Amino acid sequence: MTTGDISRIEVLKGSQSALYGSHAVGGVINITTKRASAIGTEQQAAVEYGSYATKTGSYSWATKSDRAELAFTLSHMSTEGFSAKDENDGNFEADGFRANRLSFFGQYELDTGALIGLNGFIEDSRGHFDDFAGDTPASAGNDFTDRRNIGLRAFTQFSTGAVDHKLDLTHFRSNRVSTSDTSWPAGATYFNGTRDKLAYQGATDLGAQARLVFGADTEREKVKGGGAAWMTGAFAELGWAPSDRIDVTATVRQDHHSRFGDFTSGRLAAVYRAREDLLFRAALGNGFRAPSLYELYGPYGDPSLQPEESLSAEIGVEKRWGDLATLRATAFYLEAEDLIFYLEAEDLIGFNGTSTICGQPFGCYAQVPGQSRRSGLELEGTYTLSDRVELGAAYTYTDSSTSVGWAGVARHDVTLFATAALTDALSGTVSVQNVADRPDGLADYTLANATLSYDFGTGHEAYLRVENLFDEEYQTVKGYGTSDRALYVGLRASF
Questions:
Q1: Which domain holds residue 483?
Q2: pTM of the predicted protein model
């Protein structure tokens, strides 16, 4: 997806199935598109050009009144790109990408006080890729995927007495055609899938210190020529504040999958504010994920796959020193049973003693037997050096137990950054990331990025962004190419 219409991204880590169902086995990403921030009409436009002949542009229009709201964004991106298989391994063909996207949002408040609304998006894209054998003169430019994604959501919100209600009906459709001359299977492969969901959520206060949220949903996934699956679930979440220093949330959910049966998930989280500037938090939850229809019935699928199950736990502390500094530390643990992962032929030899599985010579989706575990520690902090300069750092230590799948994560990952207001109009940010102790023979690397922006003071801003400042040669995933040093210039305007 492109980012021209995004205003906010929130990430919830850990198993979240108790509230959000099967798809939230490892976390939740909530993406909010652009809307009017106040009553009136707002417009935003942005253009950018840079390395690899990369061009992006977007235009947003949003209006808001006392009872109505309407917004839409049109965006475009195109790039010649770099080789999907690393050019340092002898590949020479640039693999480009282009996409056009339209998103919209609208809602209206009825005389009864109820809200009704509709939002959605449509995106068309083409992305080039490399086949398993890599680039050859005969295959250059012949491997690409055309994709059209459509998402729609109709919703209403209303209250009856002490209960607030929300009802959502969503539809998502993905049509993909992958064309390749030498990959297996050669020629064109199709995947046309839909996901339809009806969800209800209610909420009511149970006195001054507790609130109950409850709901139910039903979802149907279907693939043309590849089967269908139903998922129905119900949940309840109780938020309780026994004092002004403690918040506790407990959630339980029951799901039924048409193929895999019943699953119960739960989550317990608590926050203790020892002082205004010091808090402790902890969470424990389990989750599950049924294999997707593509993993079951796609060209690299395996119909015998079983659901993943997960258990996650974390405990953390946060400390603030006024506006001067912040420090956060979190210890985490995550385990998965029957982890699903795409295994290539070279992994399969060590995995099950053969280079073929599911009758496919290049690999497929498979189940990692038993438990896969990951644990570690996250540290992050900021320090205000002056009224113009802020420093920050983040470090993650990760220990993974599996030989495939999760083992691709580095043991050490540290990032340092500095943000400075050089003048009243000119500001800049520099970040340096070091990734070390990596598996699969992957080399450690250090990556630096920098951005310089100038605010004209009239809602217009120009910027220069440099990615991979020191032209590091590196891979984030074994065999896959990454960008050389790249420069981008852009202009943003609000009016």
A1: 410-495
A2: 0.87
